[in-house]
Design brief:
The chain is an all-beta fold and 202 residues long. The chain has no helices and 19 strands. It folds into 2 domains: 131 residues, 6 Propeller (Neuraminidase), CATH 2.120.10; 70 residues. A hairpin with a 4-residue loop joins strand 14 and strand 15.
Length: 202
């Protein structure tokens, strides 16, 4: 393990890959890192940013980024940065997941569904509390994590199903990953300094 593969970062959060480039949020900047060397090829300062968090990369290489404190979604495309959307009715956007032209955004009120062509916003799944990690689970459902330590399966019109709860041990649940073909749920624990994997039952 190379613990100094990429250096010069301050508080990296979200990550997304396009080709051989790894995009990483870092408080108020977005870094483009070469995956072969770990070298920062370019850094983009995001004007007015206060807490950049998650990243989602679309099929055309557009990089969507949440800012939890300003309730904005930024877009980096062809090396041009813009405030793509301001979420006036929803607070603390964090986790992102993209499918084609549809961007899902985890907020303090639930999972939003945004048409990236029209910028239309609808509430896909209401859910109280913050959403850090966000991944699709089958049709119409999502696996979500919150910072305090809960990871749940949520869907519209259904009660949330608790998958993992580490709140009693003060173990965080940060941004997660889910590998459907292996039914493998991967959760970084942040201050607990571990990445934990769970196999979900059928």
């Amino acid at each position: 393990m190379d613990t100094s593969w990429a250096i010069g970062l301050h508080a990296p959060k979200g990550m997304g890959i396009k080709g051989t480039t790894l995009f990483v949020t870092d408080i108020d900047r977005i870094h483009a890192i070469d995956t072969a060397s770990g070298k920062i090829m370019k850094s983009h300062d995001v004007e007015g940013a206060r807490f950049l968090n998650d990243i989602a990369v679309d099929e055309e290489g557009g990089v969507y980024v949440t800012d939890m404190e300003t309730n904005r979604l930024h877009l980096l495309k062809n090396d041009v940065l813009s405030v793509w959307l301001e979420l006036k009715d929803f607070k603390r956007p964090n986790g992102l997941y993209i499918e084609g032209k549809v961007l899902f955004v985890g907020t303090g009120q639930g999972v939003l569904k945004i048409d990236t062509a029209l910028k239309s916003v609808v509430m896909e799944v209401p859910h109280a509390g913050g959403i850090d990690g966000l991944r699709r689970y089958g049709r119409g459902a999502f696996i979500v994590s919150d910072w305090k330590g809960k990871t749940e399966l949520i869907a519209r019109g259904r009660n949330a199903v608790l998958l993992v709860d580490t709140t009693a041990g003060n173990i965080n649940a940060a941004d997660l990953e889910y590998i459907p073909e292996k039914r493998l749920l991967i959760i970084p624990t942040f201050f607990d300094n571990r990445v934990v994997a769970y196999t979900l039952g059928k």
